What does this fold into?
Amino acid sequence: MATQRIIDFLATRRPTGPCLVVDLDVVEANFNAFRRALPDSAIYYAVKANPAPEILRLLASLGSSFDCASVAEIEMAMDAGAPAARISYGNTIKKERDIARAHALGVSLFAVDCVEEAEKVARAAPGARVFCRVLTSGEGAEWPLSRKFGCVPAMAIAVLTRAEALGLRATGVSFHVGSQQCNLDAWDSAVADAAMVFDALSERGIQLSLVNMGGGFPTRYLKDVPSAAEYGRSIFDALRKHFGNRIPETIIEPGRGMVGDAGVIKAEVVLVSKKSAADENRWVFLDIGKFGGLAETMDEAIRYPIVTERDHEAKTPCVLAGPTCDSADVLYEKTPYPLPVSLTVGDEILIEGTGAYTTTYASVSFNGFEPLRAYVI
It folds into this structure.
């Protein structure tokens, strides 16, 4: 995953401290792969994955639209060259004044998942288009997104009916099958739920036109994952199965799958130690941890590939931890990580697949450590 361009950059620039380096060539290749895989779906990049201006400008120039979770992200996308018509305010939990600000900027597509949110949109963005997010199980995802967002399909029918009555344009249904979703069949039941909502609204005289199929597209960490083309075939089969020849307008929202494998974090070993003479596992402390951008190691959900210059030597299991004075700042302990026996203080390592959800999760200055620096090349 560390492209030659990234390796050359690190060798030439020799940045001190932990840093993320993102290769734009990989981002462009990923965008084109999604476009080929689902040519009839609009691509709405999930800005939260990595909002670096260089990434947003590249994607805007390629014709991408943008899924935004806040007014700040909307403004980032617009600053990068995206018109308001190519922006979705996809967070189902919004302050009314933020809805009004987005509407004033020209954004007209909003996510809701309850009547109360629809009422806020109706007051702050009259006449806007809304889609209702439905719950999915998230089974098969390494980073599930169930429960907090969405409602059951039966409630989605009531929400969209109410939205239409409030003067909004009930436009469609959205769902998210869970981040890092490796099950090709995960979209099938969600598309079935969407079709059921379409049919129910049609019986009430409301014609929906949009299915937002969310993200979930994975990046490769320690295990191979299906290709964009495989996801495209599976999703199209689900749409054909449940909508027949009346396939609606569709949106996908890749984030991790767009930028995850484009980035590599360079880090340094700060300490290698044991807790007792009988301890089977060494503790390897890095200068980056959960609070420095590796929050997705929570519950060891995401296991990043780690590359060292000593990988040709024998390895033993290690507990991997970050540098801060917080006992939660341990990356891998339940399942220790195999690292070279000779790994020592001062060695540099590369943590691959870190282009998504790292800089945005890094703390501002916990323990005085600076936020994760990033370079986009």
The chain has a mean pLDDT of 93. The first helix runs from residue 4 to 13. The two ends are 15 Å apart (CA to CA). The first strand starts at residue 19 and ends at 22.
